[in-house]
C-alpha cells in the first residue's frame, strides 16, 4: 500500500480487499461496550479541514480515537488563506507541531496531493474539491460487498451530479477495481468534461436515460445535486431534474427487491432521492455511515500503525 | 565606442563581420579595422534584437515578483532589446502618467527598451475606455492597448476601442477568452484530464468565439486587432480565414504553448498553471504549423513572474503564469528550428521583425544592414542547455523549463551598440 491515500489510484484491488478485511474486524469493535483498540496509542493525527464537513470529520475523529490515537480537529476554513498565508505555509505550520498523520479536506481539487509533496507524514485525502474522496469510495465498496458478496460482474448505477462529485470519481475507480460494471447516469450538462474518452480508458459506461439503466442495476448510488457548486444553469428546474433523474417512488418499484440504494449524504430529499427511496428497506445509507468508521479505522491502521513517529 | 563581431552568420545564412560604431551598424563584410571590442562569432547566428510583445514586469505594485530592472535583466539575457510591458500592474497603466512612469523606469534600467502597453478600459474593468489618446500622446507613445489577463468581453466596448485606436495607428491586443463560457474558477484546459482531475476548465471554444467575434469587429471597423497568446487549433483556423479575407489581424503564440501540453497538470503542479491554459497535443501541433506558415505572426513570451508564495496554493487558487523571457529563444530553437519548421530567417521574422512592426516600435526588428540601429542578438544555435531555475536573473522562480534540456543559447545582446549581455551574462 502506498504511503498516502490521496486517490483510489493509491490502492490496488488486493489493497482494497485487505482494507475490507481489517475493516470487518474494526466493525466488530463498534458493537463492543469498550470501543478502544491500542493500535495507534501515542500517535497524533490531525484532521485539517479547509472545508466544512460534519460527518466526514466526525467519522475520522471517532476512527482515530477508537484506535487510541490523539486526534485534533483543526478548521482552517477561511483562516490562513484569507490572511494571505499560502497553503504550504499553513500545512508546514501544522505539521511542525509534531504529528504522525494528516487527514485533509479541501475545497480545491488536488490539494491533498500537493500537500503530500510538502510534508513527511502520511496524508489521507478526506475529499478534495471535485476530485476524489477515496475513503467514501472504500466505505461504499465495503457496504456493497457486505450486502452483495463479491462485486465481480455486478452492475452499479451511479446517478446524478457527476461533474461536481468526488464520490463519483473515486467510486468509478474502486468499483471497477473490485470487478463491478459501472454505468454513470446524468444529463449531458452534469457529465464531466471529456467523459467520452475517460470512460473508454477507465472502463465504465455512460447513459442519459435512467429508466433504461435501472432494471439492469444490482445497486444504485444516488449522488447529491451540488447546487452550491453550480454557477450556471445545469438543468432547467428541480422538478424537471427529479422527473429525469430522481429515484422516485415509481422508479423504486422498478428495482429488484434487495437492490441496495446508496447515497453519500447529505440527501436532498425530493430532489435526487424520494423519501420512499431514502427510507426504503433496501436503503443502506445508514450502513454507509457505520461502515465509514470501520473503513477509516482500517485505513488509519494500515497507513499509520507501522509508521515510526516523524515530522 | 566600436565593436567588431567577427564571422557571424546572418539569419539568411551569409557569414560576415559586422562593425558597430556609435550605436549603428557601420560596415559589413570582411573587416580588418580595429575596434574597441571584438567578439568572436564563429559558428554563431546574429539576429536583429528580439522584441517581446507580451511581458509582465509587475512594477508598480508587485515589486517582490519582478521590477522593471529585474525584468529588463531577464529580457536582455534572453536576447531581447525591447519588451512591451503589459498594463495589469497596480495601479493599472491606464493614464498617460502611468505609461510615462513605466517608460521612464525602463530608460533608467537601460537594458532594453521598455514600451508600456496601455489598458483598453479603466482599471481593466471592461466598462469604460481608458485614456487611450493621452497614453498615445504621452512621452511613452503607447501604440498597443490591452486588458491582458482579462478579455474585453463587452462587444460594444471592444468595437469602440478598435475604432478609437485608429486615430493613433494603434492596435488592440485581446486576451481572447469568453468568461461566461466557463465558471469563475476555471484554471486549466477543459477536456478529459480536467474532467478526471475535477478541475474546472475553459473549453477551447471560449477562446475561439472571441477571436471570431473580434476579427469580424476588426473588419467592421477597418481597424487592427492582435490576438494575444493564441492557444487552440480553432483560433488558428479563424485567424487563417480572417487573413485570407484581408482583415487586419495579427497573432502571437507563446513558447510554452508551442511545447508544453495539458497532461503536465496531472500532478496539480501550479508551475504549469497559465492563462490561457496548456492545451492538448493537437493544438500544439497546429500552433507550430501556423507559426511556420505565417498565420501566427510572432512569438511572445507572456513572461509572468510570481513570488513563490503566490504559487504555493491549491491549484485552483494559485496564480496564473510562468517565466519566459530567458528561455524563449532556446524553446523556439528546440521546437521550431531543430524540427525544420522554421529557419533562422523565420526566427528573426517571428521574434523580432513582426513583433516590432505590430507594436510600431521604431529602431527594432530592422534588417542587419549598414546604417541600421545596432540592436542585435548573438546566438549559439548548437549549445545544449539544461535550464536551472536557480540561475535565473528574474526575481521569481516559476519556471516551467527547470531541468529541461533545450538547444540554443543567447551569447550576447547589444542595445544601440552597447552590450547588455556578454558570454550569456549581464555585461
From TrEMBL, chain A:
Pathway: Pyrimidine metabolism; UMP biosynthesis via de novo pathway; (S)-dihydroorotate from bicarbonate: step 2/3. It comes from the Bacteria. Carbamoyl phosphate binds at residues 55-56, 105, 133, 136, 265-266. It catalyses: carbamoyl phosphate + L-aspartate = N-carbamoyl-L-aspartate + phosphate + H(+). Keywords: Pyrimidine biosynthesis, Transferase. The keyword Transferase applies. Residues 153-303 form the Aspartate/ornithine carbamoyltransferase Asp/Orn-binding domain. Gene3D superfamilies: Aspartate/ornithine carbamoyltransferase. Its EC number is 2.1.3.2. L-aspartate binds at residues 83, 166, 224. Belongs to the aspartate/ornithine carbamoyltransferase superfamily. ATCase family. Heterododecamer (2C3:3R2) of six catalytic PyrB chains organized as two trimers (C3), and six regulatory PyrI chains organized as three dimers (R2). Catalyzes the condensation of carbamoyl phosphate and aspartate to form carbamoyl aspartate and inorganic phosphate, the committed step in the de novo pyrimidine nucleotide biosynthesis pathway. PANTHER family: ASPARTATE CARBAMOYLTRANSFERASE, ORNITHINE CARBAMOYLTRANSFERASE, MITOCHONDRIAL. This is Aspartate carbamoyltransferase. It comes from Nocardioides humi.
UniProtKB/TrEMBL annotation, chain B:
This is Dihydroorotase. It is an enzyme of class 3 (hydrolase). It comes from Nocardioides humi. Binds 2 Zn(2+) ions per subunit. Keywords: Hydrolase, Metal-binding, Pyrimidine biosynthesis, Zinc. Its EC number is 3.5.2.3. Gene3D superfamilies: Metal-dependent hydrolases, Urease, subunit C, domain 1. Residues 265-417 form the Amidohydrolase-related domain. PANTHER family: ALLANTOINASE (PTHR43668:SF2). Pfam families: Amidohydro_1 (PF01979), DHOase (PF12890). Its cofactor is Zn(2+). The keyword Transport does not apply. The active site is at 302. Catalyzes the reversible cyclization of carbamoyl aspartate to dihydroorotate. Belongs to the metallo-dependent hydrolases superfamily. DHOase family. Class I DHOase subfamily. Residues 46-233 form the Dihydroorotase catalytic domain. It catalyses: (S)-dihydroorotate + H2O = N-carbamoyl-L-aspartate + H(+). Zn(2+) 1 binds at residues 54, 56, 148, 302. InterPro entries: Amidohydro-rel, DHOase, DHOase/Allantoinase_Hydrolase, DHOase_cat, Dihydroorotase_CS, Metal-dep_hydrolase_composite, Metal_Hydrolase. Transmembrane segments: none annotated. Zn(2+) 2 binds at residues 148, 175, 229. Pathway: Pyrimidine metabolism; UMP biosynthesis via de novo pathway; (S)-dihydroorotate from bicarbonate: step 3/3.
Amino acid at each position: 500500500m502506498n504511503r498516502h491515500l490521496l486517490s483510489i489510484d493509491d490502492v490496488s484491488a488486493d489493497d482494497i480487499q485487505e482494507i475490507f478485511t481489517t475493516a470487518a474486524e474494526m466493525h466488530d469493535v463498534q458493537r463492543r461496550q469498550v470501543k478502544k483498540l491500542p493500535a495507534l496509542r501515542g500517535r497524533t493525527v490531525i484532521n485539517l479541514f479547509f472545508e466544512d464537513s460534519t460527518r466526514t470529520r466526525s467519522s475520522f475523529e471517532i476512527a482515530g480515537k477508537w484506535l487510541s490515537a490523539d486526534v485534533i480537529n483543526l478548521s482552517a476554513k477561511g483562516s490562513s488563506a484569507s490572511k494571505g498565508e499560502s497553503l504550504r505555509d499553513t500545512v508546514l505550520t501544522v505539521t511542525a507541531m509534531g504529528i504522525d498523520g494528516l487527514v485533509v479536506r479541501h475545497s480545491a481539487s488536488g490539494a491533498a496531493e500537493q500537500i503530500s509533496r510538502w510534508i513527511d507524514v502520511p496524508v489521507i485525502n478526506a475529499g478534495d474539491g471535485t476530485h476524489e474522496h477515496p475513503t467514501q469510495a472504500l466505505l461504499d465498496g465495503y457496504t456493497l460487498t457486505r450486502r452483495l458478496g463479491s462485486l465481480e460482474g455486478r452492475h452499479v448505477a451511479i446517478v446524478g451530479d457527476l461533474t461536481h462529485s468526488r464520490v463519483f470519481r473515486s467510486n468509478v475507480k474502486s468499483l471497477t477495481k473490485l470487478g463491478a460494471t459501472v454505468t454513470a447516469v446524468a444529463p449531458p450538462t452534469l457529465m464531466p468534461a471529456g467523459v467520452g474518452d475517460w470512460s473508454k480508458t477507465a472502463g465504465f459506461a455512460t447513459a442519459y436515460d435512467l429508466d433504461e439503466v435501472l432494471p439492469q442495476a444490482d445497486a444504485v448510488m444516488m449522488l447529491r445535486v451540488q447546487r452550491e457548486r453550480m454557477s450556471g444553469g445545469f438543468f432547467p428546474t428541480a422538478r424537471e431534474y427529479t422527473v429525469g433523474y430522481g429515484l422516485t417512488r415509481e422508479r423504486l418499484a422498478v428495482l429488484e427487491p434487495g437492490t441496495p440504494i446508496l447515497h453519500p449524504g447529505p440527501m436532498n430529499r425530493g430532489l435526487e432521492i424520494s423519501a420512499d427511496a431514502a427510507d426504503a428497506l433496501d436503503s443502506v445509507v445508514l450502513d454507509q455511515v457505520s461502515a465509514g468508521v470501520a473503513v477509516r479505522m482500517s485505513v488509519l491502521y494500515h497507513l499509520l500503525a507501522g509508521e515510526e513517529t516523524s515530522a | 565606442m566600436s565593436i567588431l563581431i567577427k564571422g557571424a552568420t546572418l539569419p539568411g545564412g551569409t557569414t560576415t563581420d559586422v562593425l558597430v560604431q556609435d550605436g549603428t551598424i557601420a560596415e559589413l563584410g570582411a573587416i580588418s579595422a580595429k575596434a574597441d571590442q571584438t567578439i568572436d562569432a564563429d559558428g554563431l547566428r546574429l539576429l536583429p534584437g528580439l522584441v517581446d510583445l507580451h511581458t509582465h514586469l509587475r512594477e508598480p505594485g508587485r515589486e517582490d515578483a519582478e521590477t522593471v530592472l529585474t525584468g529588463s535583466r531577464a529580457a536582455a539575457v534572453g536576447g531581447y532589446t525591447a519588451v512591451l510591458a503589459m498594463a495589469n500592474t497596480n495601479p493599472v497603466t491606464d493614464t498617460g502618467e502611468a505609461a510615462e512612469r513605466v517608460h521612464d523606469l525602463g530608460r533608467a534600467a537601460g537594458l532594453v527598451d521598455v514600451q508600456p502597453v496601455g489598458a483598453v478600459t479603466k482599471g481593466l474593468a471592461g466598462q469604460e475606455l481608458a485614456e487611450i489618446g493621452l497614453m498615445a500622446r504621452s512621452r511613452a507613445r503607447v501604440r498597443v492597448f490591452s486588458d491582458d489577463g482579462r478579455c474585453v468581453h463587452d462587444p460594444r466596448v471592444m468595437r469602440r476601442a478598435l475604432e478609437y485606436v485608429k486615430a493613433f495607428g494603434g492596435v488592440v491586443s485581446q486576451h481572447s477568452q469568453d468568461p461566461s463560457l466557463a465558471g469563475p474558477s476555471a484554471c486549466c484546459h477543459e477536456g478529459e484530464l480536467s474532467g478526471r482531475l475535477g478541475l474546472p476548465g475553459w473549453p477551447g471554444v471560449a477562446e475561439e468565439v472571441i477571436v471570431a467575434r473580434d476579427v469580424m469587429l476588426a473588419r467592421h471597423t477597418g481597424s487592427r486587432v492582435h490576438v494575444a497568446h493564441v492557444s487552440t487549433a480553432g483560433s488558428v483556423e479563424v485567424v487563417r480565414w480572417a487573413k485570407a479575407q484581408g482583415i487586419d489581424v495579427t497573432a502571437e503564440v507563446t513558447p510554452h504553448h508551442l511545447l508544453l501540453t495539458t497532461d503536465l497538470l496531472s500532478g496539480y503542479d501550479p508551475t504549469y498553471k497559465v492563462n490561457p491554459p496548456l492545451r492538448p497535443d493537437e493544438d500544439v501541433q497546429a500552433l507550430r504549423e501556423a507559426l511556420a506558415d505565417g498565420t501566427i505572426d510572432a512569438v511572445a513570451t507572456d513572461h509572468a513572474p510570481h513570488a513563490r508564495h503566490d504559487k504555493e496554493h491549491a491549484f485552483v487558487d494559485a496564480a496564473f503564469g510562468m517565466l519566459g523571457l530567458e528561455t524563449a529563444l532556446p524553446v523556439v530553437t528546440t521546437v521550431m528550428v531543430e524540427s525544420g519548421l522554421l529557419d533562422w530567417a523565420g526566427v528573426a521574422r517571428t521574434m523580432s521583425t513582426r513583433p516590432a512592426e505590430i507594436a510600431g516600435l521604431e529602431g527594432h526588428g530592422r534588417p542587419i544592414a549598414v546604417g541600421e540601429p545596432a540592436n542585435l542578438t548573438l546566438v549559439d544555435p548548437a549549445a545544449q542547455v539544461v535550464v536551472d531555475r536557480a540561475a535565473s536573473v528574474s526575481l521569481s522562480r516559476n519556471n516551467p523549463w527547470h531541468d529541461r534540456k533545450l538547444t540554443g543559447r543567447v551569447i550576447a545582446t547589444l542595445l544601440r551598440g552597447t552590450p547588455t549581455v556578454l558570454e550569456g551574462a549581464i555585461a
